[in-house]
Amino acid sequence: MMMIQFRPCNGVLRHTSMSPVVQRKREGTRREVFMRAEEAVASRTQKIMERISMSDEVGGAGGAYSYDALKRLDNIWSSICSAQTVQREPQQVVSSFPGILSHSRLAEKAVDIFDVVVCGGTLGIFIATALSSKGLRVGVVERNILKGREQEWNISRKELMELVEVGILDENDIEQATAVAFNPNRCGFQNKGEIWVEGILNLGVSPVKLIEIMKNRFISLGGVIFEGYCVSSIGIYDDAAVLQLAEGNILSSHLIIDAMGNFSPLVKQIRCGRKPDGVCLVVGSCARGFKDNSTSDVIYSSSSLKKVGDTEVQYFWEAFPAGSGPLDRTTYMFTYVNPQPGSPKLEDLLEDYWDLMPEYQGVSIDNLEILRVIYGIFPTYRDSPLPAAYNRILQFGDASGIQSPVSFGGFGSLTRHIGRLSTGIYEAVSGDFIDSYNLSLLNPYMPNLSTSWLFQRAMSAKQQSNVAPDFINELLYANFKSMQRLGDPVLRPFLQDVVQFGPLAKTLGLVMITSPRIIPLIFKQVIKHLVWPFSPISSCPYLIIRREVV
Length: 550
Description:
Blueprint: E1 4-9, E2 12-18, H1 20-40, H2 44-50, H3 67-82, E3 94-96, E4 112-119, H4 124-132, E5 138-142, E6 153-155, H5 157-166, H6 171-177, E7 178-181, E8 185-189, E9 194-197, E10 203-205, H7 207-220, E11 224-227, E12 231-236, E13 241-245, E14 250-258, H8 265-270, E15 278-288, E16 296-301, E17 306-308, E18 311-313, E19 316-321, E20 328-337, H9 346-361, E21 369-380, E22 393-395, H10 411-430, H11 436-440, H12 447-459, H13 471-486, H14 488-495, H15 501-514, H16 518-526
Parallel strand pairs: 3-12, 4-5, 4-14, 5-11, 8-16, 14-22
Antiparallel strand pairs: 1-2, 6-10, 7-10, 8-9, 12-13, 13-14, 15-20, 15-21, 16-19, 17-18, 19-20
Helix pairs in contact: 4-7, 4-10, 5-10, 6-7, 13-14, 13-15, 14-15
Organism: Rubroshorea leprosula
Protein name: Lycopene beta-cyclase
């Protein structure tokens, strides 16, 4: 019932006030209407993205460019942030059964038999081709059409040559797939100084061309591709793994390789739905209209901490000439955050990106033609790489967590490990060493990943921290300045993710001499993330940086 008070005024009754309950209800209704009106107004990101003609979505990180896909990914990110420790109960994909396959009800239903089945084709096609070239019968299951994305992968020629050494590419293939090459490459930190290097992430490789080359080579070696098929369940028997696809196909294999990326349903099951320890959020665009477009930024910071909603973040940038035209350039803005309530969404970051990118690149956004918008979330876990949890199943690529925690994407990591892994997997299958213990030896503990994990923590804005807002930039500049003084033999291994004790010790010593006051601040920033006992290498989180862009 509505309670309204009246009082006489010149013989006329006048409304004076309403009850607090009614007033709050009315204010709430007005606020709700206002919020709905706000939601009805499209964001700048939505307007920009809906003006761009979209190609079909493909598999792999960064394979979708539409606004609807952005909202879907933001919903996934919000669900990760809202969880306390464990997300919703993961789907149970893998089950183990006693006995051999021939005694099971599926024995006569298997339509094809393989030595290895690779689930996830975007990066999985590389390991599948390497194993096929060694004489194994290999199948690839890909939920989309197996095709590379339009946005280029940035990598160095040295890393690409790893694929030539494995025997799955030749140098003509590299030339055919390389869309653009550029030098030099800049590292810079908020007006503190710049360092220029050459040959680091200085090639733009077309995933469309590279994966097409790899796909044709795989088929020519006898490989079989199941395009448009989804994994439903996997049964592990004493003598085989049985993969059931959602479309009804049943495949039998000695070994299954999970190359389904960061959000693999198998990884979710193994990690019991646990939320990641850290996340790299990435947004960006490829745009036309950059007149000064001959160099790249490997890592650049143009500001100190920034408030986004309730969260402080430290933004970093990368920029590369694109192969689609002389005025085309790709710029990425990324940050490292803890997944927690209140963390910024990708769309929030994109709204900042449209404001900050023109100033960073010295252009007007009105003079740019946005060709595509790029976004992604890359979760990381301290306990990486992921050891094999089941017999006959091995994680590969991003699913294994073998990529650096400070990277966003695993193509560069794939090139560095494919030689070792293809040989090891071939020997495991040939010798029947495909129990979880032996498979785990292929993804062993790696001290450099522990070091890189702490480095990611040092690059993350720590909430309610008492370190200066420009601490992260000061830390990075001190590190890079010391490596530059020590010369190319020290600087280049760091930038190429090759951890060597000698360069580590030299850099640590020089930083302690030239910037001694920064050492206590480092431990203040990352101390809660240290796990004792820790090695001398892992106690130096500020010593390593490596960027991989896919």
